[in-house]
Write a structure and sequence with these properties.
The chain has 295 residues and is mostly helical. The protein contains 13 helices and no strands.
Length: 295
């Protein structure tokens, strides 16, 4: 089943649509919970569940020292910085706007592959990059978004998170990690949870019992753990091994559109005409990146 077309399609659906909804649920949760506490709890529970599922399916949890160190490195780039700091930045920007900023990931991946592997840009890749940059300009040039309090800091930090996630994607595609995607994901989540716990304690974040959370936050955390964590992240790790990282990174184009409309519908976030146009331009870039010939 490793290279099953059906499995690949289902994995893409998971990272496109499930992850697209996580921006909304992270935004709901971070309005009530400290960001690094939120991320630590989320990945700890998801990591335990993932490891438990691996054991139930009779997969060995034993890994080499190299695989363990690579799992910790991947956890940092993906979940500690790429996700933990991103959730913190959502305190300053709308969920849909943050998701659209994250859509620059394919551009980062292409440039990183150019620097690391000396991969030349193909014509379709260049068109995709150009469309991405145009879409980004249309997005951040909106005065009403850039002038809100703390938004510039939020924008800058989100872009550094995108860089972290992009490098992690390239790293995982080459690194020695457990062959089982469930085992690999479980170790990454538990490692990230521990690091995020240290960060949260260091920042003196206030911890609280799930029983004291509002119903909306409890539901959001459940969805983030089960769907956003277990299903989508396992699909993400699987895709990084069977297709090119540039194609996997195209989820950053689809996620924002899902997030944009969910934020508008559920949180009454502003959905400007310019944001819609920017979304269309960014999505058009998906075709040019995914349809390029892989050398």
């Amino acid at each position: 089943m490793k290279n099953s077309k059906t499995l690949i399609i289902l994995a893409f659906i998971a990272i496109y649509f499930i992850w697209g909804s996580t921006y909304l649920f992270n935004k709901i949760a971070v309005t009530e919970l400290p960001p690094f506490f939120l991320a630590s709890i989320r990945f700890f529970v998801a990591g335990i569940l993932m490891s438990g599922l691996a054991l139930l399916s009779k997969q060995k949890l034993a890994i080499s020292k190299k695989q363990l160190s690579n799992s910790v490195i991947a956890a940092f780039f993906f979940m500690v910085y790429g996700n933990g700091v991103f959730v913190w930045a959502l305190k300053f920007v709308d969920s849909g706007f943050g998701a659209l900023l994250a859509s620059t990931q394919p551009l980062f991946v292409l440039f990183l592959l150019k620097l690391i592997d000396r991969k030349p840009f193909q014509k379709k890749s260049l068109i995709g990059v150009a469309l991405g940059m145009i879409g980004m300009y249309l997005l951040v040039s909106q005065v009403e978004l850039r002038t809100s309090e703390g938004s510039l800091l939020g924008i800058f930090m989100i872009l550094t998170c995108v860089l972290s996630w992009s490098y992690g994607s390239v790293f995982v595609s080459k690194a020695d990690l457990p062959k089982s995607f469930m085992v690999s994901t479980g170790y990454q989540m538990l490692a990230a949870s521990f690091i995020l716990f240290i960060v949260s304690i260091s920042l003196n974040e206030q911890w609280s019992s799930p029983l004291t959370w509002s119903t909306n936050v409890q539901i959001s955390m459940l969805i983030l753990i089960v769907f956003g964590g277990i299903f989508a992240f396992t699909a993400f790790n699987y895709l990084l091994k069977v297709v090119s990282p540039e194609k996997v990174s195209t989820s950053a184009y689809v996620n924002p559109v899902i997030a944009l409309f969910m934020g508008w519908y559920f949180l009454d976030e502003v959905l400007s005409t310019q944001s819609v146009i920017a979304s269309i331009v960014l999505l058009t870039g998906v075709y040019f990146i995914t349809s390029r010939k892989r050398k």
